[in-house]
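Dear support,

I submitted the protein below through the web form. The confirmation email said the job was done, but the results page showed an empty box. After a refresh the structure appeared. I'm attaching both so you can tell me whether what I see now is the final result or a partial one.
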Amino acid sequence: MPATHPFIIWWVPQKAARAKLEAELLPLEWQKAKEGVDVKLLPLEGELYVLARSNDRVAKERAMRRRQLKKLWARLKELQQMAPARDTLLLKLGAAKSQYPSGWRLVKIEVGQDGELSFCLRKDKLREVRQREGRYLLRSNLGSENPAQLWQLYVLLTQIEEAFKNLKGDLAVRPIFHQLEKRIEAHIFVAFLAFCLHATLRHKLRLRAPGLTPRSVLEQLSAIQMLDVHFPTTDGRWLIFCRYTSPNKLQKLLIGQLGLQLPAQSPPRITSRRSLEPLSSQTRL
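What the results page shows now:
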């Protein structure tokens, strides 16, 4: 890639290359990129390797690891007390491995021929994991840039990746099966508007409810539905009420926390005699 096009990559090298880079990065001094973020810079072969350490990520990853390890340890003790047959035990251990992968790597587990289960903490692995929690190895061709800008570029990269993940996941804009160009453009435009609303909701949550995600809020509020209720009148016409379902306590709490307000219920409509026949087939509620 030409030097005029900056790039920054989150990079996890092979074990041998990683050990070599770590040995060269170890004696270097930490530099402050921003509040709570420190970096070490290693120019090498025309590129710049950046070891970044985020205090927030250290705390988050450490809490996740502790939570998984605690649950796995409790499950292993439970299996030890149950003492199932060896084949059954192996199946249950496989399920525990898939459920707690982060904790599994930190525990040494042995199953005897008689089905006896024994386990212990791998302290060497735990020390290694603790040293790497909240740390990222980046590679960039921006050798002359300051650490703060490198970190900002990396954060921007993660935001772009998150945007594509939201478009394909929460907003479900793929697959697109349109044949005409104008329909494809319209689909992309609507998807972009949906993403703007998604980003706005995420920003509101950061300010008012930091512990919530847009997905959890949408799942809760999706239970509020709009519907038309039709009542027949004595003269053969239909009285139509456009109503939304009443929110429950949790939904009311979310709406209040986000500073939102449900629209007022619209006044009822009544059909004319001319529209009686097409409406007569509607389901009466």
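Response: this is the final, complete result; the empty box was a page-load delay. Residues 275-285 have pLDDT under 50 and may be disordered.
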